Each structure stands twice: as structure tokens, then as C-alpha cells.
């Protein structure tokens, strides 16, 4: 678990690089608009109209700075870029109030400068960076619980098995056991699997399958195999709708997810 923050940090910077390319492309496209810039302020006529600026006045506020170069909040992003392309507040360096500057969100972290919680996990982007969780991944440790929920119930959002009992926090939480108590990680009856298909009854309820039938759609594949191995739909016997059951396709060596690939 010790290297989790490092892995997460690498993810941020990879995604930050992607964001940098995206914004560079946006700025480049804006530059391509210049031929249709009647007042020569560096902002295309269409963009000025969209954000309510005067396309015939290159310096609307009379401060001696062209409209296209104005950066009212000093965050390194021009007002027209914020208004016309990023939908952020040109008068606030932190438009979404998550304690991260708009420019840093774009160029460093790859988070959304107009959303305080980019991954919608209940924690702000700034809070996640302070905790070393990933602000672009709702479930940083992939244990089946969002980071925000883990923070509220006391489990570790960077530790998939907070009590080191052998079951993930998500399995315990959704299965009704205590993810902070290792002594209840021993399986039945705490984690029942009524049909013995290696999916717990609580997991089957979540998937919409029958916890008392190992093959809910009667296609010849167990629910577990469909979900974990073949990625077919365990409640639809013919996932690709080609007239052949998923089990028939698997046993024939054809692709149960491709309607053009079936037994002949």
C-alpha cells in the first residue's frame, strides 16, 4: 500500500499532460479564429458575440490592454479563454472554490477548473490532493467504495482492506460486515453465497442476478463467469443478440459480444 500515493501522483501528471495538450489545442483553435476578428483584439467575432463583448471595440474597459490579452484575475488564463472556452470565472483565480487555481487544475492536475469535485466522489479536488487520493478517480484504491464514503465511515481511501482481514472494504460494507473489524472477514454466514457461484448474495443483488441461481439467464455460463471472465450480460442469455446463447458461443470459440461472429 505504501506506493499508492506515488501511483496516484503519476496518474495526475499523466492526465495533467493530456489537459495541457487539450488547452493548447483550444488556444490554437482560438488563434485560428483571428481572420474573423474585426476589431483586432485577438478574440474572434463569434466568441465576442457569445460572451457578450463588443466585436467592434478592441479595449472595452479602456485599460489600455486588448480584450484578448486581458487576465482580470491574474491566473494566467485570459478572460476570453475562461468565458468562451473553459466556462470559468475570469474574476476568480479559483472558479470552483476547491483551493486549486484554475491554471493549476488545467496544466498540473488535469482536474476540471469549473467543478470543485472532478470525479464526483464527495471530496473536493483540493481535499483529495491533500489526502493523496486521486481527484480524477472516485475510488482511488479500487475497493468498491468511493473516496468520500470511505472518509465518512472511517476506512482508508488508499487501503482497499482497511482492517487487513482479507476482504476488501467494499465487499464488507456492501455485504453487511464491518470493514474496520478483521474478525468478521471469515465468510459465511457474514458473506453468504446461496447458489455457490462465487458471487456473494449482496453482489448478485447489485448486479441484478438471482442469488439462488448460479446461471440467472440459463445460457450455460455461470453468473460469475459472465461478469468476471467473459464480460457478457448475466441477465441476458444472448448478449450480442445474434440468435446464439452466450454459452453456445463461448463453447464454439466465437465472440458472445459480437453479433457478426457466431457459430457456423
What value does the average pLDDT take?
A: 83
Beta-strand proportion: under 5%
Nearest-angstrom radius of gyration?
Answer: 26 Å
| Helicity level | 25-40%
Helix/strand/pairing category: mainly alpha
**Distance between termini?**
49 Å
Secondary structure layout:
Elements: H1 4-32, H2 45-51, H3 79-86, H4 102-109, H5 125-131, H6 147-153, H7 169-175, H8 201-207, H9 223-230, H10 246-252
Molecular structure report:
With 264 residues, this protein is mainly alpha-helical. Among the domains are: 90 residues, no CATH class; 52 residues, no CATH class. It has ten helices and no strands. It is elongated and about 75 Å long.
List keywords for this structure.
10 helices; elongated
Task: Give a brief description.
With 264 residues, the protein is mostly helical. Among the domains are: 4-32 and 71-131, no CATH class; 201-252, no CATH class.
Amino acid at each position: 500500500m505504501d506506493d499508492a500515493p506515488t501511483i496516484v501522483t503519476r496518474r495526475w501528471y499523466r492526465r495533467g499532460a493530456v489537459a495541457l495538450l487539450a488547452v493548447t489545442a483550444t488556444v490554437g483553435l482560438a488563434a485560428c479564429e483571428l481572420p474573423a476578428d474585426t476589431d483586432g483584439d485577438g478574440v474572434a467575432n463569434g466568441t465576442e458575440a457569445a460572451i457578450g463583448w463588443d466585436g467592434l471595440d478592441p479595449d472595452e474597459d479602456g485599460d489600455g490592454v486588448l480584450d484578448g490579452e486581458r487576465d482580470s484575475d491574474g491566473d494566467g488564463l485570459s478572460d476570453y479563454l475562461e468565458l468562451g472556452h473553459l466556462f470559468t470565472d475570469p474574476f476568480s483565480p479559483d472558479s470552483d472554490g476547491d483551493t486549486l487555481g484554475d491554471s493549476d487544475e488545467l496544466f498540473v492536475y488535469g482536474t476540471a477548473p469549473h467543478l470543485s469535485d472532478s470525479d464526483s466522489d464527495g471530496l473536493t479536488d483540493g481535499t483529495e490532493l491533500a489526502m493523496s487520493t486521486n481527484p480524477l478517480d472516485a475510488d482511488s484504491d479500487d475497493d468498491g467504495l468511493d473516496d468520500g464514503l470511505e472518509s465518512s465511515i472511517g476506512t482508508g481511501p488508499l487501503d482497499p482492506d482497511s482492517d487487513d482481514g482479507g476482504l476488501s472494504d467494499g465487499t464488507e460494507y456492501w455485504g453487511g460486515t464491518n470493514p474496520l473489524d478483521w474478525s468478521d472477514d471469515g465468510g459465511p454466514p457474514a458473506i453468504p453465497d446461496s447458489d455457490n457461484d462465487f458471487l456473494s448474495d449482496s453482489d448478485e443483488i447489485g448486479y441484478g442476478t438471482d442469488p439462488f441461481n448460479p446461471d440467472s439467464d440459463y445460457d450455460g455460463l455461470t453468473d460469475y463467469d459472465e461478469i468476471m471472465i467473459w464480460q457478457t450480460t448475466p441477465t441476458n442469455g444472448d448478449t450480442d443478440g445474434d440468435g446464439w446463447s452466450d454459452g453456445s458461443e463461448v463453447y464454439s470459440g466465437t465472440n458472445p459480444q459480437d453479433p457478426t461472429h457466431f457459430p457456423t
